[in-house]
Amino acid sequence: GESVGLHLPTLSVQEGDNSIINCAYSNSASDYFIWYKQESGKGPQFIIDIRSNMDKRQGQRVTVLLNKTVKHLSLQIAATQPGDSAVYFCAEGSGNTPLVFGKGTRLSVIA
Amino acid sequence: EAGVAQSPRYKIIEKRQSVAFWCNPISGHATLYWYQQILGQGPKLLIQFQNNGVVDDSQLPKDRFSAERLKGVDSTLKIQPAKLEDSAVYLCASSLDPGKFGYTFGSGTRLTVV
Known about the structure:
Chain A is mainly β.
């Protein structure tokens, strides 16, 4: 299940289950949104992006959903694997302005 | 293609000392960013360069932080004097064009100020 700790929210899932990571963004004028994966000791790694004129985009084992009405973004990971364990960040951007990152969610996969 | 290179990987300094971080972006990437990531938080922008010019440094604590990208390629970020609250990972990222998304990040420099 999902819990909110003192720092990062943590989501624990069984290997093979689907994971859903949620993000609330702040700027209704953002043009695009990106999900990043950050493993320990590494920089954020691009996973998938979505433009503001879309509500769904699929990649390999990942799907991003965008609900502009409530300013909500989600990342769905199918058949979660131990290698998916990491911290996941959503980021929003528009035009030439730098990406603004959310607070992140730690995903722990239980083998 | 080679990724974004950063050095050093780790640095421990005492408060009030100075420190410098180096970044070599992906070849041809005109835009370079420095982000600060405090433990348990998302990256926060410090400064954005377009070639060798500063585009956005509104969140850079200019009384102690400075950054340069003299030839539009490599960049250095300096802190002088360091404070305890500067302990963080300093991430460098580059992109081909500011309007394109999907920055490529380096592995970062973990700074500990004691």
